[in-house]
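Side project, low priority. Logging it here so it doesn't get lost.
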Amino acid sequence: NLHWLGARTYDQVPAYQQAMDVLLIANLQNPNTASSFPLRFFEHLATGKPVVSTPMPALAEFSEHFTTASAGDFVPAIEMP
């Protein structure tokens, strides 16, 4: 289930992450995201929970620590961990 909660303060983020089963980095595939690095990636990894991300070149060196899934594979990847 997805719930839009609106803006939260930075110190509230860990409590929300702990309540999640899988942490997502779902970005559109375009030139902007191809050259960006999602800083929340390290925060997600630090929780010890499964992380699923759309393909991003900047995350390639960390590929053993998370699952990469494109649009068609995203839902099964979330259900798998």
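Brief comment: DSSP finds four helices and three strands in the chain.
Revisit when time allows.
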